[in-house]
Amino acid sequence: MSTEKRSQRITVPELRARKGGEPIVCLTAYTTPMAQRLDPIVDLLLVGDSLGMVIYGFETTLPVTLEMMVAHGAAVRRGSQRACLVVDMPFGTYQESPAAAFRAAARIMAETGCSAVKVEGGREMAETIAYLTGRGIPVMGHVGLMPQAVHSLGGYRARGRDQAQGDDIIEDAEAVAAAGAFALVIEGTVESVARTITQRVTIPTIGIGASPACDGQVLVIDDVIGMFGDFTPKFVRRYAEVGDRVTEAASAYAADVRARRFPGPENCFGAGPTALARAK
Fold it and tell me: Which candidate, 131, 137, 154, 225, has a CA 20 to 30 Å from the CA of 238?
């Protein structure tokens, strides 16, 4: 499916039907140019609230606003034609009540043109997920390590290391699936727990720091291409070092400007040799 030419986007039912089949390829995207690059390759583009850390430099995802998610979701929508588009619901927009969640989700769907929204949480969010899906809003769930709950979880630590915690995550996953979510992200969870969830639920699981047994995988694109050099999570495989190339390109540009090698004749409009010679 990844190389197939399509006239329409990959749909939520199509992804739902991929349970146990060809793995679902998912990457984050936050801008139109990145979406244009990734759209022909992936099955699902996730506009994650990770943009708060990646784009805005926040320490957590908690300061991300609904307006930010709408703006970036719309940008990714304009840059994509093929991939299913899912937008995260930011912290505080869906936890209050199912009705409040519907209002926020409806705005995201209407203003971005996305195919679905994603919410974090397990059993406590089951009622909200059922409320949204019952009113025509497809929902992707998210269990395990949940960045929006970073403070209550005690930091960005792998989940499911003991039996009780593992069982708790499994129960969360089953509740989310039963509530009507079409797919489920499992993040930062011990491999055996993620594998068990994948075997038990009837919807596709998408792992990030989880298990190769998941029905798909997602990573933050900036991690994949090496835009950050100070820290690489254990679950990331870096496929390029774009950050180093950016530094090299900017350094070469700076050197050319300072030495008056840029701009050259080919970069100027209507400047004759005499004018260029005087500039040097």
Answer: 154
